[in-house]
């Protein structure tokens, strides 16, 4: 099931909320969440649900045993077994084909590479279970005694399929007892509606721009003029941010509505002033996962410059690889690695640039990175680069491009503004007015504020009705 | 104390206001979702067909074990839920209105720009390879004849034409035209062959008719879209026809009068006024006097929003500027007979009353739309004169003008008629065979159908 679908918004989610609120005990509430999560996940195929349950079971058993035992070797053995199963499972389902392709390239065997279907969300829930096992091993958190509670953590439909990667330690206490304050429920409603509108209207609109100007098919790509290529890059850059952050918004909103607090996953990445800053604002839960479980265990930035660079290399190769089982993703990760090293170097030498320059530099680096991300075939990337400079023989613009731009310019502008904190600041002003001003303006302000989620939902339903299938980009994870 | 008290009271009011606001927000959110949920559950409200998209909507999928294990069943349920959501078409229209805010929208393009062949100055043979550029899916071979229900709501009229690229400028839509040398040559050969087969038995007239883009759209814009010059294309065709064929040139006349309402804004057809100019040119070629428009009774049908609207993704600017159909009823008779796709003979009118029809189907006021075979008998003439019009849908607006000049007017739509023309001509003593084809008919598919009439 996809969040941005009529079935989820108008049926599944409403039913879940209604039944959830009917339950009077936390146990009842958790059972409701668990049942709905299992249905949600099974919607992608009941066989994959079996995999999720199986992986969770392994993590649960191992974590319990690790906690029960005191001697180091036993704990280590259990820990390693859990990691092997979890990471192994992920590797088989996600990376076996990729690995075999490499083997085939080098050695000529095997002849045929089996096509393995990627279970939805395996990258997310595997990392969540891994973080749980590691935290138990490090004695940072208590193991969950009840299997179904761990299953609830791993499979909770809010974040199982599309993130953010929620650490067990974050929600362990809240899973057991929580209260949803009214102000938080209202905030959750707002986050949910704005996330839904972001996805259904804005992200899907930008997707149209991206698909028109950066078609995935090579021959169509060759005939796009320069203005179109740039338009496509802008469109794709916006699409991927709006798409992904929308899902995180909806997850956080849904969490707030039941009293669960997930950490922010995006912090206006496109106003970042450096690539390092960008990665502190983009998919925060992933980069902090790699920081805490790969970078720091490897030594982090202690141990000299060479070691630091090695650690960075590993983290960024893995980050790229996590996003997809293909070389272009690895290259994409290492592309950022190069810029991060460059920035470390510049910082050391105390070389600084004015803020505007830094911002533009970051945007250019990131935007071009998305080109690498979009095309699995490197020759397509070459075509795009040629097109960026007008060297693919199509000139600067043509009528189709001009018309399309004219007909989508306001949308793109609006999306660019949405990538900045502008609307958040505007909302703060309205809330302040509504809260503090007595009299007519105050009332209008808070009435307007109350209406916004309603309007956004109605607009989103309208947009979803005619939508052709437009799946979440990160769904191959 | 007073100030402190007042501040406390104000803070209390603030807090209360805030609590009320929060409650209101939650309540409104909840009620919106519940409302949509209820609407979604009310199964009887779910539509089964889409009028705008002209297709049946998804059905609830069958339950299978593999579907559940692999997830296909669930995916189909989600699709069914969205595809048949109640009030779907209203929501789609509302969404289209919102999407207009995305940009300026003065010009719109639906479909992609193609590539045309150059138009040679003299006859140039080609290898019979695949046709370039022209949308050959222009004509489908569905049973697309108009099937009028007793109430005449005309909803079953499928328009198999106009699947090409649509360009909208301001409030008028055009279909892009690309010349294909191969098809043009095929067409020429087909007409010449027909003329040979009918030599001595009937006179063959060929009337190629431009589409609106050739008459109304600025040549510069046509060039930037890569479109071909229709007048050149027609010159190429007409210049290479057999001497026995009487070619009728209508392009220049229409172009001269392009400030008049000759073509519809929202549909790919021409108006009866446009057809009238072609009729005048035909009369000149035949050597008869055309009747004046004033000699006819006029019927008007407004609110016509045609093919460009439904095929052009429901561009709102077209819906807001519907067309008016002006039809001229022949003096001698308004009765006709047609044979439908089902083979059943139906009595009908030359100009039928379509005011109750669906907005998109009103062009079928002319001779009952596209049927395999139609015939109109003129009770006022006894001279045995007759003609056979071979046409696709452009001919519909033209045929009514012929009724006053012939005792019998036979009409075949080459896409649906299964008979043989030379045989028909011999059996029925037809004197004139008139090909009335619009520019898009110079395509492989269309010509193939016409060739079939002479085999």
What's the number of domains of chain B? 2
Specify the structural class of chain A: mainly alpha
Sheet with most strands: strand arrangement of chain B: 7-6-15-13-14-12-10-11
Strand content of chain B: 15-25%
Tally of helical segments of chain A: 20
Greatest chain-chain interface? A-B, 63 and 55 residues
Spatial extent as radius of gyration of chain B: 28 Å
List the uncertain runs of chain B: 129-160
Summarize the amount of helix of chain B as a percent range: 25-40%
Q: Can you write the helix and strand succession of chain B as a string?
A: HEEHHHEEEHEHHHEHHEHHEEEEEHEHEH
Order of helices and strands of chain A: HHHHHHHHHHHHHHHHHHHH
What's this entry about, in short?
Chain A is mainly α. Chain A is built from 20 helices and no strands. Chain A folds into two domains: 6-178, no CATH class; 182-266 and 390-477, no CATH class.
Notes on the protein architecture:
The complex is a heterodimer of chains A (about 475) and B (about 450). By secondary structure, chain A is mainly alpha-helical. Helices cover about 75% and strands about 0% of the residues of chain A. Chain A contains 20 helices and no strands. Chain A has helices at about 5-20, 25-40, 45-70, 70-105, 120-135, 145-155, 170-175, 180-215, 220, 225-260, 275-280, 285-300, 305-325, 325-350, 355-375, 380-390, 400-405, 410-420, 420-435, 440-465. Chain A is globular, with a radius of gyration of 24 Å. Mean pLDDT of chain A is about 90; it is low at about 470-475. Chain B has two domains: about 1-85, no CATH class; about 135-450, no CATH class. Chain B has 15 helices and 15 strands. Chain B has helices at about 1-40, 65-70, 70-85, 90-100, 180-195, 210-215, 220-225, 230-240, 250-255, 270-285, 305-310, 315-320, 395-400, 420-430, 445-450; strands spanning about 50, 55, 105-110, 165-170, 170-175, 205-210, 245, 295-305, 325-330, 335-340, 345-350, 375, 385-390, 410-415, 430-440. The chains are: A mainly alpha (about 475), B alpha/beta (about 450). Chains A and B meet through helix 1, helix 3, helix 8, helix 17 and helix 18 of A and helix 1, helix 2, helix 3, helix 4 and strand 3 of B.
